[in-house]
TrEMBL record:
Gene3D superfamilies: 2.20.25.10, 3.30.300.20. It comes from Sediminihaliea albiluteola. This is OsmC family protein.
């Protein structure tokens, strides 16, 4: 896996993945940025959420669950000292669908946390306390 990150100006950088996708990262105005993109640590947090969500959805699809929506709400705490590393991350999955089996959602979240999500497992091995929760909602068409 490869990527490049190129400085543009101020506190703005453009990252390009090995697959050719780009993302803008920027800092707040008081630190020389223009607030035109996510902060690098926000990108890391969203990456963890994306990695785990991918796992959860993959497992739910394989178990033939009729998922209509899935989101993960992430909340993180960082150390007060520099480096301001993550010390805690909580991931709350909200999965809605038609007659979803709660046991399947629970299992998917647990397997992602314990076995499949490379990003969260890597951060957890580095000392970040990572916790998970979930809720299952019945889809009601409008």
């Amino acid at each position: 896996m490869k990527a490049t990150v190129k400085w543009t100006d101020g506190a703005m950088f453009v990252g390009e993945s090995g697959s050719g996708h780009t993302v803008v990262m920027d800092g707040p105005e008081d630190l020389g940025g223009r607030n035109l993109g996510a902060r690098p640590m926000e990108m890391l947090l969203m990456g963890v959420g994306g990695c785990s969500s991918y796992d959860v959805m993959s497992m739910l699809k394989k178990s033939r669950q009729k998922v209509v929506d899935c989101r993960v709400e992430l909340e993180a705490e960082r150390a007060d000292a520099i480096p301001a590393v993550f010390t805690r991350i909580h991931m709350h999955f909200v999965v809605s669908g038609v007659k979803l089996k709660e046991t399947q959602v629970k299992r998917a979240v647990e397997l992602s946390a314990e076995k499949y999500c490379s990003a969260s497992i890597m951060l957890g091995a580095g000392g970040v306390a990572i916790s998970h929760s979930y809720e299952v909602l019945e889809f009601e068409p409008s």
